[in-house]
Write a structure and sequence with these properties.
Blueprint lengths: L2 E2 L2 E2 L14 H7 L9 H34 L5 H9 L1 H12 L19 H10 L1 H14 L1 H20 L1 H8 L4 E4 L2 E3 L6 H32 L4 H60 L5 H38 L2 H6 L1 H11 L4 E5 L7 H22 L4 E8 L2 E8 L11 H12 L3 E5 L6 E8 L4
Parallel strand pairs: 5-6
Antiparallel strand pairs: 1-2, 3-4, 6-7, 7-9, 8-9
Helix pairs in contact: 2-3, 2-6, 2-7, 2-9, 4-6, 6-7, 7-9, 10-11, 13-14, 14-15
Length: about 450
């Protein structure tokens, strides 16, 4: 399907010719030709369906109202009145289905999706939604005003059709006279021709009246049954709150892991290193105080070997402790918490094997999720540059622009980076998406490679 300047058009039409895709467009495109288009029977079928559906819906609504009001006297009418309040939801679903006859573009359901919610939660949510009450108002209009209009149109259509075939009816009943109108007998088929002409005029009138009624009902349905900005705004607000809660949960879990590593494994390694140091000291002391006999020399050799193993174990424990500290620092560096993004990036740049020039100027501290996301984006970009780019210089630039943090990392390497090849940037992109930000990578063959991060400073 293509969309031109003149409105919606249907695929499969010739170039330069636009096929109308709604009743209103067909009526405006060629009013004189409209009675001979496919939209006329569609409108008639839609209105005839309304003439049938409206009275049935009116009977259901009236029954629920009378029954609920009557049972309220004895205190058990609340469930019936609740069903009356929610009756507009299924009626709106039927109305949206019927609209497909005259409006190929279906209306979206304005209600929130509630997967896994219980019956009571669903009912409470539906009663709080404004769309529920708009649908109930539409059901009342469909069952009264619109039903009356559809019934009047149906009567006009039926009488027009009967007048069109009146010569055949008179001919079939001849030689008896036929009363096509009260007080006026038609003696033969020729005398019924004026009535046939009136019937054709009535059908022509029905073509236009039916189109106008259908357009009016489509407009009313779009006004009452379609989603509105306030409905979408509430859903977006709820999604934003959910996203913020998810980011907070990630941050809480990160802090828990950091605390456990710092207070648990790291302290145990410190204690192990101290114990190994004491053992080494004792073994060195025994080796210095050993005797000169063969037996003593054998024990001294074993003690020296043991001291060597203890020394090596102590070195390995010290190395494991340094790696654990690096891991804790990588989870969330303390300088980021204490001094902010610029200081944390400067610290990473000083330890990087490739010269890194940093230029981050921020007027104030940013929300913690924004700072954390920007920090890990920069560190991942620097790590990738050191491993794969062959760069000799890297620049990191960060500013606030239009309420958004914009950070750009550029290296002069060989380029050709594929963000989809590794999980690092993909994971960062997911993390950035939680904050409604964007992560863009430009890396032509031959370089340079540029990573650009944009995150709203609201963090939501």
């Amino acid at each position: 399907m293509s969309e031109g300047s003149g409105g919606r058009t249907s695929a499969g039409t010739s170039e330069g010719e636009q096929q109308p895709t709604s009743v209103g467009e067909a009526l405006r495109a060629n009013p004189l030709r409209f009675p001979f288009t496919r939209w006329v029977p569609r409108c008639w079928a839609y209105l005839l369906g309304g003439a049938l559906f409206g009275p049935v819906l009116l009977a259901v609504l009236a029954a629920l109202l009378v029954l609920g009001a009557g049972l309220s006297v004895v205190g058990v009418g609340l469930p019936v009145l609740l069903a009356l309040a929610l009756a507009g939801i299924p009626a709106a679903a039927v109305a949206r289905w019927r609209l497909r006859l005259v409006e190929p573009f279906p209306l979206s359901d304005p209600h929130r999706s509630l997967p896994g919610a219980g019956r009571r939660a669903r009912i409470r949510t539906r009663l709080r939604e404004r769309a529920t009450w708009r649908e109930l108002a539409h059901a009342v209009l469909v069952s009264t005003v619109l039903a009356a209009a559809s019934l009047g149109f149906t009567a006009l259509l039926v009488f027009s059709g009967l007048y069109v075939i009146s010569p055949l009816v008179v001919w079939a009943l001849a030689p008896e006279t036929v009363m096509l109108v009260p007080g006026h007998a038609v003696p033969g088929p020729l005398a019924a021709l004026p009535f046939a002409a009136a019937g054709l005029a009535g059908l022509l009138l029905c073509a236009y009246v039916g189109a106008l009624l259908a357009c009016a009902e489509v407009a009313l349905a779009r006004f009452l049954l379609g989603p509105r900005e306030d409905d979408l705004g509430r859903q977006v607000l709820e999604l934003t709150r959910s996203r913020a809660r998810l980011a907070d949960a990630f941050e809480a879990e990160r802090r828990r892991i950091e605390r456990d590593l710092h207070d648990g494994a790291q302290q145990q390694l410190v204690a192990l290193s101290m114990t190994l140091g004491l053992a080494e000291y004792e073994l060195r002391g025994q080796e210095g105080a050993g005797g000169g006999g063969r037996e003593a020399r054998g024990e001294g050799a074993r003690d020296a070997r043991a001291a060597e193993l203890v020394t090596r174990a102590r070195g390995e424990a010290r190395q494991a402790l340094e790696q654990l500290r690096e891991l804790v620092r990588g989870i969330h560096p303390q300088v980021l918490t204490d001094h902010g993004l610029a200081a944390a990036v400067d610290e990473v740049a000083q330890r990087h094997p490739i010269p890194v020039a940093t230029d981050i100027e921020l007027p104030e501290r940013l929300p913690a999720p924004v700072e954390t996301t920007a920090y890990f984006t920069v560190t991942e970009a620097l790590t990738n540059a050191a491993k794969h780019s062959g760069a000799t210089a890297i620049t990191v630039h960060g500013r606030l622009a239009g309420g958004r943090l914009v950070v750009q990392v550029t290296d002069d390497g060989r380029g050709g980076a594929d963000p989809a090849a590794g999980a690092g940037l993909a994971g960062l992109a997911d993390r950035v998406a939680l904050l409604r930000g964007r992560l863009m990578v430009t890396s032509p063959t031959g370089g340079p490679t540029t990573l650009r991060l944009e995150v709203p400073c609201s963090g939501s």
